[in-house]
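Milestone M4 deliverable, item 7.
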Amino acid sequence: MEHHPAVARLAEAAGTVPQHQGSGDLLRVVLIVMILGCVLVGWFLLRGYKRNDD
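Output delivered:
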């Protein structure tokens, strides 16, 4: 099997990337979406309890 310098450089560059990247960004996005969803659902449900005493 031949060794190509380009393949060796790619393998070396891939090795410098951490194998275990935390889920911080994904977790942050999920939490923000959940909070906004809860606020939206609460507003939608409470909107129906408004009284029109004309």
